[in-house]
Hints:
With about 210 residues, the protein is α+β, with helices and mostly antiparallel strands. The protein contains four helices and eight strands, in the order E-E-H-E-H-H-E-E-E-E-E-H. The protein has helices at about 25-35, 65-70, 75-105, 175-210, and strands at about 1-10, 15-20, 40-45, 110-120, 125-130, 135-140, 155-160, 170. The chain has a five-stranded antiparallel beta sheet with strand order 6-5-4-7-8, with no helix packed on it. Strand 4 and strand 5 (about 125-130) form a beta hairpin. The model is unreliable at about 60-70 (pLDDT under 50).
Amino acid sequence: MLRWRCDGMDRRGQSHVVYVEAASSEDxxxxxxxxGLFVTGVKRTSSVAPLTDLSLISPxxxxxxxxxxxxxxxxIAFEAxxxxxxxxxxxxxxxxxxxxxLFARGAVRADARVVGRDRIRExxxxxxxxxxxxxxxxxxxxAWGFTWSGNHAIGGRRQVLYPPDRPDDARLAGYxxxxxxxxxxxxxxxxxxxxxxxxxxxxxxxxxxxx
Length: 211
């Protein structure tokens, strides 16, 4: 078996001089490459320097060795889910808060009476009169016009907000019906946001290396 000197660099840019035994220069280069070394030169030598333990060159950057196969695989689907939840949660939450604020700002307040209850949807039916005295029957609704669950006695009174030109789009007045759903989405998005930013940052730094 012949003795070879290989000069090269690992993925961190550190220079290495290693001594290996191989039948040919090609075999010597292959040994070095399998342990993450970019070989820049190889020559036969009669040096009595001890053989290099190639597993110690760059244990974190092996491109073909067993350590790479043991490295935990990234869960791409889970990382993508975190990013999507963060983006959608923050954007939908902010949009919902703004939409509810603008709705209330341009709406008219009126007294409504609970006249029925949908047991399947667990929501109340309300009747109110517009400023012109026109009666309207609507479902109890909150942010985005979604039905709002509530357990109010028949004949009870509630405050509603309605657009002057669309009384049938009336919603329950109050912070809870108007802002609860958007704020919950916003909170979920903000909780996931730091993790999403960290994942995106790590992906950004990994991309040049993977190329």
